Amino acid sequence: MPYDIKDASLSKKGRLRIEWADDNMPVLNLIRKRFAKEKPLAGTKVACCLHVTTETAVLMLTLKAGGAQVSLCASNPLSTQDDVAASLAKDYGIPVFAIKGEDHKRYYKHIEAVLATEPDLTMDDGADLVSVIHKRKGHIPLGGTEETTTGVIRLRAMEKEKKLLYPIIAVNDAQTKYLFDNRYGTGQSTIDGIIRATNKLVAGTNFVVCGYGWCGRGAAMRAKGLGANVIVIEVDPFKALEAVMDGFQVMPIARAAKIGDIFLTVTGDINVIRPEHFLVMKDKAIVCNSGHFNVEIDIPGLRRLSRKQRMTRDFVEEFILRDGRRIYLLGDGRLINLAAAEGHPAQVMDMSFANQALSAEFMKKNCRKLEKKVYKVPVDIDRRIAELKLDSMGVTIDRLTMEQKKYLASWEMGT
Fold it and tell me: What's the order of all strands across the beta sheet hosting 249-250?
């Protein structure tokens, strides 16, 4: 079995961590039990480009239980947990191509390695896998899924230009994904990553959140909970208004740059923080990103402004500007929640990866009937996952009576 990992001797530690995540993913456990009986993915080759974490490992085991032939590469050079990669390869027999800190060349070599299997389905996180497929114009899969906001944006652009070569389900758009994973998962894990990297006190700081989508909402909420003065940067008037109503200051980045202590980008766009902003930042300002790609911070621009750089802590790079001020970049501008911490907690990834597993099953059954478009997760799948999650938490809810259903379906009844 081919694989490319950092150190096979890490497998024992990785296996223990995978078991811990598995114990905290009850929905995916239920799906895996059914998959093991029914084998809905029997004979299906699935190429996965995802963050190689403990939670992803549980998803891989679920797909394998369903009969899939799975191969896995990293969707970000700094997100791989090397012990998990080792365990998947050595303990569970899954071809893994991922090493934390891999360079650009090796990153794409690993993508090519999973594509060499000529997959029937793809499972992507950021659409790099899909992008390579479309550029190389070789084997075309029957269908796929996409995990992230960034990836879905790229895929919808391809669909609009009629360049998308096969149907893909936007897992990110499921309510049991973006309302929970993006808000509660990114919110908690991003703050966790910042604190692990810096050991800084968040309370009392001016914490600047660039972007008030679901990830930005989560990060702002958690920073506020730790006592930060949260400032939100937005270009969308609706989201900006929501941030104001949620109790946050809203202002342009040019103003916030002068007063911020910690800056976080979660926009999915390029060069949100630029040289003109670095030039007015405080001494020892901290800059980081939790969007999928490290393009949100103009790192080349920061390098040009600095006269010296050095690593002061793991994942903390100090840039000394010409006037002596210091700016600290965390995790090379990559997802700080995965670069310096462990990513989303298993309890929230339970829902996200349940969507992935069930969407893969749906795509296997229906791909030949679907057009070359981006599809939402079927509502019945999304709803079923919510019900299973509530059940696993011991939470019960009411059901509408027949009288209530009739009232909601009619127009005659009023006051």
Answer: 249-250, 229-233, 206-210, 262-265, 285-289, 326-330, 316-321, 306-313
The strand order across the sheet containing 143-146 reads 96-97, 69-74, 45-50, 121-124, 143-146, 168-170, 374-376
CA 174 to CA 125: how far, in whole Å? 15
**Tokens found for residue 141:** 């899969």
User: In terms of DSSP H, where are the helices of 24-53?
Assistant: 26-38
Model pTM score: 0.92
- Convert the pLDDT of each residue in 218-238 to its tens digit: 999 999 999 999 999 999 999
Same domain assignment for residues 326 and 360? no
Residue 152's identity, in one-letter code, is: V
For residue 400, give the amino acid letter.
L
Residue 117 known to bind ligand:
no
Where in the sequence is the domain holding 274, given as residue range(s)? Answer: 184-339
User: 415 in a domain, yes or no?
Assistant: no
Phi, psi at residue 105, to the nearest 5°?
Answer: -65, -45
Is 376 known to sit in a ligand binding site?
no
Residue 143 assigned to a binding site? no
The answer to the question of whether 211 is labelled as a binding residue is yes
Q: How much is the pLDDT for 201?
A: 98
If asked whether residues 305 and 223 sit together in one domain, one would say yes
What is the rounded average pLDDT for all residues in the chain?
Answer: 96
When divided into structural domains, the chain yields a total of 2
Question: Is residue 273 located within the same domain as residue 155?
Answer: no
**268 in a labelled binding site:** no
Please tell me whether 146 is known to bind a ligand. Answer: no
**Banded pLDDT at 1 (limits 50, 70, 90):** confident
| CA-closest candidate to residue 146, choices 355, 308, 406, 306 | 355
* Helix H or strand E encompassing 381: helix 379-392
53 marked ligand binding residue: yes
The C-alpha atoms of residue 200 and residue 219 are separated, in whole angstroms, by 16
